[in-house]
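Design a sequence for this backbone.
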């Protein structure tokens, strides 16, 4: 007797927080984005490089919207459009709370707080909630500890 089993057809999404993304959108094309997207966005200023096919893109702003990224990008284009030319959008899943979006934004702003290019439009540098989190302890006793997590190496990044 053979027991047949159905294959699990449930799709496993690659990211827990981000549902969709679109990188390097011209500020002239933001009107074509869908309305109502929530999440994080990044504004870039493009500069020429030695390789014309790979220009440098400096982060000038990291922002979030809990109701409409498209509207925020339009406002940035009207108010500070001369400082940026390209953006990337990272839309979160519907079950992601506004507080979680703010946390993502705060962490990214905290990371970029020392970069003068990234602070051109940001008024908030450091993320206060992150500053209140427990610090990782550094000790010479930890230097000899061996750490190998084969799980980290199990899924190589395919770049897709």
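Sequence:
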């Amino acid at each position: 007797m053979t027991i047949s089993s159905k294959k699990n057809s449930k799709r496993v999404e690659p990211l827990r927080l981000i549902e969709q993304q679109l990188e390097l959108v011209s500020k002239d094309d933001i009107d074509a984005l869908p309305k109502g997207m929530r999440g994080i966005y990044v504004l870039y200023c493009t500069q020429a490089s030695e390789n014309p096919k790979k220009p440098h893109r400096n982060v000038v702003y990291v922002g979030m919207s809990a109701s409409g990224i498209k509207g925020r990008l339009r406002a940035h284009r009207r108010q500070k459009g001369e400082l940026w030319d390209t953006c990337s959008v990272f839309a979160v899943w519907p079950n992601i709370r506004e507080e979680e979006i703010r946390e993502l934004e705060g962490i990214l702003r905290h990371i970029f707080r020392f970069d003068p290019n990234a602070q051109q439009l940001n008024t908030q540098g450091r993320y206060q909630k992150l500053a209140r989190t427990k610090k990782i302890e550094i000790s010479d006793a930890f230097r000899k500890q061996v750490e190998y997590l084969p799980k980290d190496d199990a899924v190589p990044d395919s770049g897709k």
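Residues 1-5 have pLDDT under 50 and may be disordered.
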